[in-house]
Automatic annotation (TrEMBL):
<dbReference type="InterPro" id="IPR050766">
    <property type="entry name" value="Bact_Lucif_Oxidored"/>
</dbReference>
<dbReference type="GO" id="GO:0016705">
    <property type="term" value="F:oxidoreductase activity, acting on paired donors, with incorporation or reduction of molecular oxygen"/>
</dbReference>
<dbReference type="GO" id="GO:0005829">
    <property type="term" value="C:cytosol"/>
</dbReference>
<feature type="domain" description="Luciferase-like">
    <location>
        <begin position="27"/>
        <end position="333"/>
    </location>
</feature>
<dbReference type="InterPro" id="IPR019949">
    <property type="entry name" value="CmoO-like"/>
</dbReference>
<dbReference type="InterPro" id="IPR011251">
    <property type="entry name" value="Luciferase-like_dom"/>
</dbReference>
<dbReference type="Pfam" id="PF00296">
    <property type="entry name" value="Bac_luciferase"/>
</dbReference>
<protein>
    <submittedName>
        <fullName>LLM class flavin-dependent oxidoreductase</fullName>
    </submittedName>
</protein>
<comment type="similarity">
    <text>To bacterial alkanal monooxygenase alpha and beta chains.</text>
</comment>
<dbReference type="InterPro" id="IPR036661">
    <property type="entry name" value="Luciferase-like_sf"/>
</dbReference>
<feature type="region of interest" description="Disordered">
    <location>
        <begin position="1"/>
        <end position="21"/>
    </location>
</feature>
Length: 364
């Protein structure tokens, strides 16, 4: 990105304003979850419908995440899914939450998201993570020939930025390589490229995002104990840049809204059992609420489930709204990104709709 296009293109998308009476921008992180009794195709169709609804309801952005080897998650390729969602919507900001950079060559990522930006200028975010998003064996299969991993993330990020910006310093081994499409001009005005976000669940990416002056998204939904320390580290490390004058933090939050607290808890427990199986190395389809109710939990498993549910904002819509707002104030996050890891497309879409209504979102 050039300095001339940064302020015009990046400031407003990153610093997205609240709409209607909402106290802060509210966004969605979606995994195209595949529940028991559903197919991946049905899950992707539901994600497309959810993106359309999110645009109608007034959610600020809609991100999809890269995961591999997980039968319950169909979003294995964010750029492919983002292209499909962008064609199915008109104004909704779309992005990756995120692309796991160690799994890919930086040039390939730059070309993929440069192409998305050229097709849908001003609507694309490039969120990057340093974890593989899968098990070690699958990570090795994905990285065949790359020879790099999470420890090389800063170098990979520097290469990706160079390709996105359209140039490397003299003497760099890639100075003659151009990512196509790269930064281009339309009618004499700059198009630029998609803004880069760093994602994380610990202090490493928080510090790096701060030092580089990039927006930061923290995975509160599976690392709640680290949220405040990581955001404090991000803010204390922050150096102003062309992208941002001051820190901008988003936190991912598990949230489930239903007509009653009992119903919301019942839905959330299906996601809890799915996470339990994932932690035990047995990922599968999202179980039904009935399966989650009848599962023979050990005392240790019940402890895990209780701890996981404690970090889910759930209940009737008003209670979810209040819980989200309390979390935003406690962490100082400028934006919340909700995710509902539950069984059943209808229940998932209904949950997001109830949250949007309670939160006072309106399409802008």
């Amino acid at each position: 990105m050039t300095g001339s296009d940064t302020a015009a293109e990046q400031q407003d998308p990153i610093r997205g304003r609240a709409r209607g009476s909402a106290p802060a921008p509210l966004s969605i992180l979606d995994l195209a979850t595949v529940g028991a009794g559903y197919t991946p195709g049905e899950a992707l169709k539901a994600t497309t419908e959810l993106a359309r609804r999110a645009e109608e309801w007034g959610y600020h952005r809609f991100w999809v995440a890269e995961h591999h080897g997980m039968p319950g998650v169909a979003s294995s390729s964010p750029p492919v899914l983002i292209a499909h969602l962008a064609a199915a919507t008109r104004t909704l900001r779309l992005g990756s939450g995120g692309v796991m950079l160690p799994n890919h060559a930086p040039l390939a990522v730059a070309e993929q998201f440069g192409l998305l930006h050229a097709l849908h200028p001003g609507r694309i975010d490039l969120g990057l993570g340093r974890a593989p998003g899968t098990d070690q064996a699958t990570a090795r299969a994905l990285r065949r020939g790359l020879g790099e991993g999470a420890d090389d993330f800063p170098q990979q990020l520097a290469e990706l930025t160079g390709f996105l910006d359209g140039g490397f310093p003299p003497g760099h081994p890639y100075e003659r390589i151009t990512a196509v499409p790269g930064p281009t001009r339309d009618g004499g005005g700059p198009l630029g490229r998609p803004p880069v976000w760093l994602l994380g669940s610990s202090g490493f990416s928080a510090r790096l995002a701060g030092q580089l002056g990039l927006p930061f998204a923290f995975a509160h939904h599976f690392s709640a104990a680290n949220t405040v320390p990581a955001l404090d580290l991000y803010r204390s490390s922050f150096q102003p840049s062309e992208a941002l004058d001051e820190p901008y933090a988003v936190i991912g939050v598990s949230a489930v809204a239903a007509e009653s607290e009992q119903q919301a808890l019942r839905l959330a427990r299906s996601g809890g059992l799915s996470m339990l199986r994932l932690r035990r190395g047995r990922p599968g389809l999202i179980p039904t609420p009935e399966e989650a109710e009848s599962y023979p939990y050990s005392d240790l498993e019940l402890g895990f489930l209780d701890d996981w549910l404690a970090n889910v904002v759930l209940g009737e819509p008003g209670r979810v709204r209040d819980g989200l707002e309390e979390l935003r104030k406690r962490t100082g996050a400028q934006e919340l990104m909700v995710t509902s890891h539950i069984h059943g497309h209808e229940a998932r879409i209904a949950s997001y709709g109830l949250i949007a209504e309670a939160y006072g979102l309106t399409a802008g």
